[in-house]
Design brief:
about 35% strand; single chain; alpha+beta; about 30% helix; 4-stranded antiparallel β-sheet; two-stranded antiparallel ribbon
């Protein structure tokens, strides 16, 4: 199995799903005009983050909140924890597709995923790219009969690269991919 956007699904399914990396808001921004009157000088927009440290802190807090919501939802689906509250664009679409896959195949994840480390890769305006080391040693894949169907040899740790964006609705995860290499 391969870790897909912070959750586990079969490699064949991941390969069949298209990988995306361009945040939706960038496409929207390119297609919209500025709305300035002719001859008016555009005002420079302030940077989304005051520093790389601030950008990393915001991205890490968002990713950790997402993983916490995933863990709370696994513990108690009636808890009101909604991991999708931390997602937008392709990450949200992929998460919904994963939920459909789990339901259609009668599998779910039990246990908690932990974040071992987060490292800043790049800050580009309102977009922050981070590498995350996810530890899923305490999780297992369970089928509808309660049988553990976790693949033998699944790595306990997986490296993930996530894109987090500052939006009018807060800081949200817009995309992410995992690496076949453990972290």
């Amino acid at each position: 199995m391969d870790n897909f956007r912070g959750r586990w699904m079969p490699v064949a399914t991941v390969s069949a799903m298209r990988r995306r990396s361009l945040p939706v808001f960038l496409l929207l921004a390119v297609s919209l005009g500025t709305g300035c009157a002719p001859g008016a000088e555009p005002s420079p927009s302030p940077p989304a983050f005051a520093s790389d440290d601030e950008a990393l802190a915001a991205a890490e807090a968002t990713y950790r909140a997402y993983v916490d919501a995933v863990n709370r939802d696994r513990d108690d689906p009636e808890s009101g924890a909604n991991p999708r509250d931390y997602l937008t664009g392709f990450a949200l679409e992929d998460d919904v597709a994963l939920l459909r896959y789990e339901r259609a195949n009668g599998v779910h994840i039990e246990g908690h995923t932990k974040i071992d480390s987060v490292r800043l890769i790049e800050v580009d305006g309102a977009t922050v790219t981070i590498d995350v080391c996810l530890n899923s040693a305490d999780t297992k894949v369970v089928d509808s009969t309660g049988q553990d169907v976790t693949p033998t040899g699944r790595p306990d740790k997986v490296a993930a690269r996530a894109t987090v964006v500052q939006t009018p609705n807060g800081t949200l995860i817009s995309s992410g991919e995992t690496s076949p290499e453990p972290c």
